[in-house]
Amino acid sequence: MPESKREVRPIEITYTCDACGQGLMNRAGDMDPQSGDILHRCPICDHEQTFQWRAYPRIEHIGLEEQL
Ligand SMILES: [Zn+2]
Asked: What digits encode the pLDDT tens for the residues 11-49?
């Protein structure tokens, strides 16, 4: 495959706490390599939630012409 280049823009993806609806969940531990579980905690109410194979907040890049 030949090399190709394109311009992209960064997108921040956050997850609002399911418990209080205010805080943005933060990663609170390492990913379990077996299950992919990543513990997160709300900085406002201390609610804990586990996400699999994804962490918040995170930055992804999409093409300039792509929709969110
Ligand atoms: Zn919360």
From this structure: 999 999 999 999 999 999 999 999 999 999 999 999 999
Distance of CA 68 from the midpoint of ligand 1 (Å): 25
13 CA from centroid of ligand 1 (Å):
17
pTM of the model: 0.83
CA of 57 to the centre of ligand 1 (A): 15
Q: Tokens at residue 35, please? A: 């299950």
Distance 32 CA to ligand 1 centre (A): 23
* CA distances in angstroms from 68 to 24, 36, 61, listed in the order given: 19, 25, 10
